[in-house]
Every structure is written in structure tokens, then in C-alpha cells.
Amino acid sequence: MSVVTKKFGSLYFDGQPVDVGSRYDEEVITFGDTVPGKEITWVEVNGLLIADRCVCVNISWLQLSQMGYTFGREVTIDGRKYLCRLLKVGAAPETPNEWDDALDATTEDNAIWHWKNCFFWGQETDKAYTFSRAVRGCSSARYWSNRTASYRRVYVGFRPALVPLPIDTLTSDAPIKTYVALYNETKVYIGIFKAKSEQEAEKMVAEQENCDRAAIRAIEVPMA
Questions:
Q1: Which residue among 5, 49, 69, 77 is the one 20 to 30 A from 99 at the CA level?
Q2: Could you tell me which residues come within 8 angstroms of residue 103 by beta carbon, excluding any fewer than 6 positions away?
Q3: 58-69, pLDDT tens digit by residue?
Q4: Is the pLDDT of residue 90 over 80?
Q5: Which of 161, 160, 19 minimizes the C-alpha distance to 11?
Q6: Rounded distance between C-alpha atoms, residue 133 and residue 91, angstroms
Q7: What pTM was estimated for this model as a whole?
Q8: Angle at 73 between CA 56 and CA 159, to 5 degrees
Q9: How many whole angstroms separate alpha carbon 189 and alpha carbon 171?
Q10: In what order do the strands lie in the sheet with 10-13?
Q11: pLDDT tens track for 27-42
């Protein structure tokens, strides 16, 4: 079975490019243009670009959530925009999810996916224990387990997935602004949205999240 890989983009800590697999220590994580020798390898499968290994370790689910990477943060790499997020890995064993679908479409080979001896975080809250989040890998490609959302160890890391975003077709004079959306009470990041007003953005997000608009806060942000 053929596996399609692409090497591009680099991981940055506090604005500085770092090696793939670096240990996280409270820095601000961003993704940006490719730096030779620090490229990320992505496996292209099922419409996603999934990192072939954890790009950094010793990071908790909560830290990723606070930076917006759990459910999706817009990033620009080499001039192209993507939504960067965690994979859906299943809220319990044996439930349909993106990680198992990717393995089904490619291979479980550790030489491709580098799952051995390192868990990676998924989006989901454990169905049985709401204080825990799903992790995959480490013992085998399909191994499922959980860890508390604040858990940090060098054998638990961040394996990002990129969703290519459509090329922006808006005209330069279109009255569209960019908003970052948060849950109003918890300040948990949801994503970045384009709309004509704060109210329109909040309505869009509420419909997506299936919640009351009062639960959402949209904040206008300047975008380069």
C-alpha cells in the first residue's frame, strides 16, 4: 500500500524554529514557513495532512487547548492557510475515528507513523471519565488509553493534523472581518471565523457548536 508524504513547514517555540520532537517548556507554539533541516513530515490521507510523529512532547491537552490547537487554529505555512488541530481518536476504544481510518488507509508501520514509546493527544474527552482525554499509540499503533487533561510527560506529545483551507476568494473591499471565538465563561478557544459583524460570527459559532449564542464570545482580531 503506497503512502504519500510531504515535507514542509516548521515548528516554532516563542517565534524560533525548533527541531521536530522537541521538549515543550511553556513556550508559545506556532507553525510557520519551512526552515531547512527542521521540516515536518506529513502523511496525506483522507483529506488530511497528519504529522508522521509528535512534533513536540511534554505538553498537556489543556496547554494545547489554551493555544487553540485542540479543535482548530488557523496557521499559514509557506503562503498557504490550514486549520491545525488534534485528530479525532475516539472517546472510547473501538469507536470510529480519524486515526484508525488513517491507519486503515495506509499502514500501522512504526517506520511511517512513529507511534512507538510515545502517546499523542486526541480531541476527545474520555466517555467514562470526563476529567481525562483520549491518547493513542505508545504500545501499538491502535492502542487507546487516557490521561488527565493536565498530564505532562516526555512520552506524551502533540501530533498535529492540517486541514487545507480554501483559497480566500473575497475581494479586497469586501466588508469581512476576522474573529476569534471563545466560550464566554471558560474562555476556551473554539476557532477563527470570518463574518461581517461580531453578532454574525457569534451566531455562526453557536450553530456550529449547537449551543446558545450567549455562550459564545467573538473578538475581532487583525489578520496579516
A1: 77
A2: 113, 141, 142
A3: 999 999 999 999
A4: yes
A5: 19
A6: 8
A7: 0.76
A8: 25
A9: 28
A10: 16-18, 10-13, 29-32
A11: 999 999 999 999 999 9
